């Protein structure tokens, strides 16, 4: 009997020694993020019985500080998710494992399937990849079909000219016009126009800022008109969904989240609104800003192989599907980094096709050195044009000078 | 001599004996209170003294919270003092501080004089005016964000709309940023200053007013010659604490104007010294520079408080 007990205790302690635990901190402003990932973790656990998970959601506002604290104390999560800039920023400080160096096969696999614009943003200028995309957030145009029709506008505006013509018609019919929500009156909302006009923030090799190119100036002139000529609201975060619901702002641009939240928040306009990709600029491109979050492995983790294996699993079809379904259950739209899986999203066909089309033409923030510090200068240039009437070329020259200074730091 | 020396030694002994005794007595009599104070003292040293001294050290370092800090002398201070955004933040904060402190004092005193009696209605009104001070904070600032919304669902725009005035973008127009902050702070703080003035007003004896009235002093003369000088302690208190508090304002400008990329709002029109500090520390992770901003802020508050106390003392000596 004694021998049996001893054997059982020994077996238990051996299995405890073999058990591995993955602690995951997911950035998000509600507890849903942990709920979304949990079914994927359960699927993984079904095949790896000895692995246990601790999954926690960290608010956006605290995330970077908490991650820094974890790195400094070398305790905390094994895997984190965070903003697109977190990968390079934490990685260069030694906080994240260099995936392209330590796990090149995984990095190569991700490069093949993940959204290209986001991959450009999160890959350091020397090609290093510290984190891989976890999910995506992209800009879309939303419009009220009935109100546009009443104002004599046929369908969604397809070009810059169509868009301004639509805004003019709407204003003439007594409506307030168009609204921009995400990054309103700042660099983020100017970003798509810059790319649609054929401009960029920096040249391809990050050697100098090119925001002050003729294309950049054209984009800024067009963009500033929304505020100076068409009186778009300038609040930090205007309520686009309420504007659509009241019909005061029958057209506007914001992130894909409204695809999920509009049906819940504004059921009375169900069937009266649609989403479309952004109107094309002079180049014919409808480029939108794409954001989202990345996922990386902390440099101090004791289970790096397990962490990367789980991240690899999160890129598989069953895991992506499980997370999409889980998000649906909590009323959230979760877009996987694998754009080929976007067809799995639970959306009406027209909204899904608009989203998929936009995902194909979207760029993320610059990966060039000093962009984080330069964003303010670009923001200031744009706002100087809108609010102080500064000449767009002068304003962008000033921004480019700051960007170039920060490139050299 | 021997005798003298002996006497001197005895004297020294006698003088020192009671001292030793008093120290022992002190320890014996106060050991329990000292022990009870110990947890506070420990917490004070660990969570107040140490972080303050550490931030002073960090202000002279290049530190990003991950790598070890590197000593760089006064470079952080130089960079901050050469940054136009710092001066924009300082300008906004200075205007905000002086306007909000002066208005809070004036309106608080006015309310105290109007509703300072013991009548039930006055007590209820005092309670209403004091409510914002109790319920203040992030939740109330968030409610104000809705009140000030530029759209038709914004309460303020709805009200001015009744009078045919077009909607105003209160939070989206640079020239309104600091006035909006001042208005919110005055609304939030006048109940508190009102209560302080009410208690001080009650301490002023009626006989002074009666004597002045008999001497033919008008109500305004009585106010200027009796009320204002005797309210000086409250004025000093509300001004000094108001200035320090206003220079440290953070949550309101952050809630009203910050977004995911910028803390100061349009053209930094709502940037304050502490939101600038926060941006340095927690958006850019330049902890050394953020610590330097904190010490510059400390120096400003310290100097302003000294000036304030000197001016008050000078006024006292003149009178």
TrEMBL record, chain A:
The keyword ATP-binding does not apply. It comes from Deinococcus cellulosilyticus (strain DSM 18568 / NBRC 106333 / KACC 11606 / 5516J-15). This is Sugar ABC transporter substrate-binding protein. The keyword Signal applies. Keywords: Signal. Pfam families: SBP_bac_1. Residues 1-19 form the signal peptide. InterPro entries: Bact_solute-bd_prot1 (IPR050490), SBP (IPR006059).
Automatic annotation (TrEMBL), chain B:
PROSITE patterns: ABC_TM1. Its main location: membrane. Residues 90-308 form the ABC transmembrane type-1 domain. InterPro entries: ABC_transporter_permease, MetI-like, MetI-like_sf. GO terms for cellular component: plasma membrane. Pfam families: BPD_transp_1 (PF00528). The chain crosses the membrane at residues 32-53, 95-116, 128-147, 176-198, 230-250, 290-309. The keyword Transport applies. Keywords: Cell membrane, Membrane, Transmembrane, Transmembrane helix, Transport. Signal peptide: none annotated. It is found in: Cell membrane. The keyword Transport applies. GO terms for biological process: transmembrane transport. It is a multi-pass membrane protein. Belongs to the binding-protein-dependent transport system permease family. This is ABC transporter permease. It comes from Deinococcus cellulosilyticus (strain DSM 18568 / NBRC 106333 / KACC 11606 / 5516J-15).
């Amino acid at each position: 009997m004694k021998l049996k007990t001893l054997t059982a205790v020994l077996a238990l302690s051996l299995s405890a020694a073999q058990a591995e635990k993955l602690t995951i901190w997911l950035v998000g402003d509600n507890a849903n993020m942990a709920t979304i990932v949990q079914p994927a973790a359960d699927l993984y656990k079904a095949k790896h019985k000895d692995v246990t998970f601790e999954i926690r959601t960290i608010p956006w506002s605290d995330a970077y500080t908490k991650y820094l604290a974890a790195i400094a104390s070398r305790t905390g999560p094994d895997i984190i998710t965070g903003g697109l800039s977190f990968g390079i920023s934490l990685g260069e400080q030694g906080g994240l494992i260099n995936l392209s160096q330590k796990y090149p096969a995984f990095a190569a696999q991700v490069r093949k399937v993940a959204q290209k614009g986001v991959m450009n943003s999160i890959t350091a200028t020397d090609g290093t990849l510290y984190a891989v995309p976890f999910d995506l957030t992209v800009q879309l145009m939303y419009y009220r079909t009935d109100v546009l029709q009443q104002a004599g506008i046929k369908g969604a505006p397809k070009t810059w000219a169509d868009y301004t013509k639509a805004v003019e018609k709407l204003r003439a019919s007594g409506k307030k016009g168009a609204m921009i929500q995400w990054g309103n009156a700042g660099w983020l909302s100017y970003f798509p126009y810059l790319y649609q006009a054929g401009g960029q923030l920096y040249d391809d090799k990050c050697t100098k800022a090119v925001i002050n190119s003729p294309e950049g100036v054209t984009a800024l002139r067009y963009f500033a008109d929304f505020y100076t000529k068409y009186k778009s609201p300038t609040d930090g975060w205007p309520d686009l969904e309420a504007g659509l619901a009241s019909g005061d702002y029958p057209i506007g641009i914001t992130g894909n989240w409204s695809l999920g939240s509009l049906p819940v928040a504004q059921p009375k306009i169900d069937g009266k609104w649609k989403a479309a990709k952004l109107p094309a600029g002079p180049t014919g491109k409808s480029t939108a800003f794409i954001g989202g979050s990345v996922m990386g492995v902390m440099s101090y983790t004791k289970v790096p192989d397990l962490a990367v294996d789980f991240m690899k699993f999160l890129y598989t079809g069953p895991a992506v599907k499980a997370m999409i379904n889980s998000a649906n259950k909590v009323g959230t739209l979760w877009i996987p980094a694998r754009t080929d899986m976007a067809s799995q999203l639970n959306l009406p066909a027209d909204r899904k096709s608009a989203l998929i089309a936009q995902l194909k033409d979207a760029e993320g923030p610059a990966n060039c050195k000093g962009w984080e510090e330069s964003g303010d200068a670009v923001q200031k240039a744009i706002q100087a044009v809108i609010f102080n009437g500064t000449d767009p070329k002068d304003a962008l020259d000033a921004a480019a000078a700051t960007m170039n200074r920060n490139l050299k730091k | 001599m021997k005798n003298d020396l002996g006497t001197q030694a005895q004297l020294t002994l006698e003088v020192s004996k009671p001292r030793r005794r008093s120290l022992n007595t002190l320890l014996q009599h106060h050991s329990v209170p000292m022990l009870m104070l110990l947890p506070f003292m420990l917490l004070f040293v660990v969570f107040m003294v140490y972080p303050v001294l550490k931030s002073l050290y960090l202000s002279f370092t290049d530190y990003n919270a991950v790598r070890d800090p590197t000593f760089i002398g006064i470079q952080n201070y130089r960079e901050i003092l050469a940054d136009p955004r710092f001066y924009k933040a300082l300008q906004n904060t200075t205007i905000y501080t002086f306007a909000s402190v002066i208005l809070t004092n004036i309106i608080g005193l006015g309310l105290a004089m109007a509703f300072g009696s013991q009548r039930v209605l006055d007590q209820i009104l005092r309670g209403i005016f004091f409510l914002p001070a109790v319920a203040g904070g992030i939740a109330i600032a968030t409610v104000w964000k809705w009140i000030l919304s530029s759209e038709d669902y914004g309460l303020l725009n709805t009200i001015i709309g009744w009078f045919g005035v077009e909607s105003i973008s209160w939070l989206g127009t640079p020239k309104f940023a600091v006035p909006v902050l001042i208005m919110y702070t005055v609304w939030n703080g006048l109940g508190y200053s009102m209560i302080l003035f009410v208690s001080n007003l009650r301490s002023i004896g009626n006989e002074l007013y009666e004597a002045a009235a008999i001497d033919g002093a008008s109500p305004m003369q009585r106010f200027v010659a009796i009320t204002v000088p005797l309210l000086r302690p409250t004025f000093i208190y509300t001004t000094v604490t108001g200035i320090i508090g206003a220079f440290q304002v953070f949550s309101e400008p952050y809630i009203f104007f910050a977004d995911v990329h910028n803390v100061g709002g349009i053209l930094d029109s709502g940037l304050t010294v502490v939101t600038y500090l926060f941006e340095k520390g927690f958006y850019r992770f330049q902890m050394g520079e953020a610590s330097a901003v904190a010490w510059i802020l400390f120096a400003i508050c310290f100097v302003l408080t000294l000036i304030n106390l000197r001016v008050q003392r000078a006024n006292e000596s003149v009178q």
